[in-house]
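Hi team, as promised in this morning's meeting, here are the two structures we talked about. I've kept the exact order from the run log so nobody has to guess. The first one is mostly here for context; it's the second one we should focus on when we meet again. Sequence first, then the predicted C-alpha cells.
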Amino acid sequence: MSTFTCPVTISSLDGQRTAVVEATVDTGAFYSAMPARLLSELGIEPEQECRMRLADGQIVDVELGPAFIAIDGNRAPTLVSFNEDGAPILLGAYALEGLRLLVDPKGERLIPNEEIPLY
C-alpha cells in the first residue's frame, strides 16, 4: 500500500490557536501523532499516558491530549500523541473515523464515508 500526505488543521479545544501541518495518512496508527512542541504551543496539554506498540514491535509509553482536527472543512474532536521533534506527523485511524473519512490508497486521497453503521 502506498502512503500519502494531506494538510491537516490541528487546534486547541477552545479553537483559539490553530496550525496547519502536512500529515502522513497512516491507518496502521491508532492515534494521530504530532510534535510535542507544536501541541504545547497550541495550548494542547497531555491528559493521560498509555502504553503503545510501535511498528517495529517496541513498547513505549506515550502522552495523549485532546484537540480538534479538521480536513477539508470537516472538524472533529480527537486524541493526539505527543511525539519528539523530527518524528513523522501522522494522521491515524481514530481521527479518520471521527471525521468519517475513508482512505483511497490507489487515488492517494481521503473520501467521505457515507455509510457508517449506526449499530
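And here is the second protein, the one for discussion:
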Amino acid sequence: MIASTDLILVAVLPSPRDLEIARLLGWYRIPLRTAPKVVAVDYLAFYLTGAFADDRWRIQYVAPVVGHELTTRMELLHEESDHPRAGEEYFKIQIGTLERLSSPILADKWRRITFFYTTGEYFLRAQTVRDLIVQSGEREILWQTLRERATQSQTYGAGSLPEVDLDPAVLALLLGIGESGAPYTTEIGEEAFE
C-alpha cells in the first residue's frame, strides 16, 4: 500500500480503453512530447476524464510503478500501425495491479488536468484533487525527491539520460505547480494522450 513518503504521479486516463489496457496488460503510455520530466515514481494515480460517464472527473484507481521504458506507439499498439503518430516515442510505464479506491478523490471544480506530482501523505488524506497539491512549506521535500529521481542514471531503450542539476524554479515547472499552489494545466485534447 502507499506509504507517506511515496512519490505519486497523477496521470490522465482519457478513455475506458486505456483503463482496460492498464488493468489487463499492466502498462500505461505517455507520449514523450507531452510527458512529465520525471516518470520514475512509486505510484500512478489515474484521473478519469469525462469519457467515463458516472465515474468521470475523479481519481478512482492507483497502481504501483514497476518499471518504464521508451518505445514507439506502434510497438505498444500493433493494431494501429497506420496511426499518424505510430512512429513517435512513448514512455511505457509498467504497473502492478490496479487498486480501486474505496473513496474516490473528486475533481471538484478542476476538470482539465494533465500530469502533476504529489506525495503519499497528501494522497492518503485527499478528498478532492485540490487536496493533492503539496503546500509551499513541504515543496522542498518534494523537490528533493524529484531532484534525486531526475539525477539518477536511468536506461530508456538504447540510451540513458545524463545526470542533470535542476534548480528549484525548474523543478516547480516540472512539478506542474504554479505560484498559487494550483497545478499548471494545459488546454489539450485527448489526442495528446493517443
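Starting points for discussion:
The chain has one domain: 7-193.
The longest helix spans residues 139-151.
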